[in-house]
Amino acid sequence: MKEDQCSQCSQCSQCLCNSSWFEEEEEEEEEEKKKKKKKKKKKKKKKKKKKKKKKKKKKKEEEEEEEEEEEVSTRARTRIQASGELKVVWRSSDSVFLGPRAPSRPRPSITMVVVDDRAEGRRHGS
After folding, report:
1. Where is the sequence biased in composition, kind Basic residues (predicted)?
2. Is 51 part of any domain?
3. What is the domain range of residue 58?
4. Over the stretch 11-60, which tens digit does the pLDDT of each residue have?
């Protein structure tokens, strides 16, 4: 189509040279772009929110684990104090290991020698 023909038939909505048709088409495209952008933003926001929620949940779980670990060690200490048999040997991040109480300082062994004084003719204690 030629431009001079288009200017004569300004009523033609299907004519590519009709400026009003172009404007409408551009507006529609812009609206579609805006909608797509909004959708993208919404999706991003949702994703961010989900991520934040996940982080919060993970943090909460970690705090609960720490509290539980603390509770276990407190119970272990109480048990140790009550029984006097166990002590905390070592701890890891997820559990407390109990073992037998460490022996106190080793005492030197004393060898007793019994001497029979009667052999020498003396009575013991007289």
Report:
1. 34-59
2. yes
3. 19-93
4. 555 555 556 656 778 888 999 999 999 999 999 999 999 999 999 999 99
